[in-house]
Amino acid sequence: MKKHLGVVVLACAxxxxxxxxASDTSNGVYANDWLVRLRAIEIxxxxxxxxxxxxxxxxxxxxxxPELDITYMIRDQIGVELILGTSRHQVTSSIGGLGGVSVxxxxxxxxxxxxxxxxxxxxxxxxxxxxxxxxDKLKAGDxxxxxxxxxxxxxxQAGVDVQVAKNLFVNADLKKIWMRTSASAGGTDxxxxxxxxxxxxxxxxxxx
Length: 208
Hints:
The protein is mostly beta strands. It has helices at 2-24, 51-55, and strands spanning 34-44, 48-49, 59-60, 63-73, 78-84, 87-93, 96-104, 107-113, 120-140, 143-147, 150-165, 168-177, 180-185, 188-194, 198-207. Strands 1-4-5-8-9-11-12-15 form an eight-stranded antiparallel β-barrel. The chain is elongated, with a radius of gyration of 24 Å.
C-alpha cells in the first residue's frame, strides 16, 4: 500500500512540476525560442567627411523604413539577432545635392536579455554589420561620382520587449551602426564619408 501511495505521490509531484513549468514559461523567453520583430525605424546619420567631401560639407539625410529582425535564443538569457532592412538616402553638400544612394546593412548581434522570464525584458547587444551601398546615382556637377560599395563595422544596441499576450510583445530599440565609404570623381579621390547612424525603432514581435 505504501509503495502504491509513493508511486501516486511521485506521479502527482511530476504532474505538478510539469504544470508549474508550463505556467512559468507562459511569460518570458527561453532557450530555443525564436523571436521575430517588425519595426518602423528612423535612421539618423551622424556624418563626418574627409578630403574634398569634408570641404564641401557633405551630409546624408535621415530615412524612415521598415526593418525585420530575427532572434534565436541559444540560452535563456542569450540570443543571436539578425537585422535586415534597406534604406534610400540623399547626399547633400554646400554646392547642392550630389544624388541618392541605397544602403543595405545586414547586422548580426549577440544579445543579453535581462529578466528573461518576465513580461518586461530589457536587452543589450553588440556585433558586426556588413554595409552594401548600391543603386548610387551620384554626381559632382556633370561628373559622375564613384563610391566604395561595401564596408564592415561594429554595431551596438539596447532595447526592451514588453509582453502584451502569450506570444506577442511590443518593442523599442536603439542601435548605433558604424558604416563608411569613400568617393572619387574622374579618377580624383574625393575623400571619406563616415555615416555612422543612430537607428531608433518601434514595433511588434512574435515568439515562436
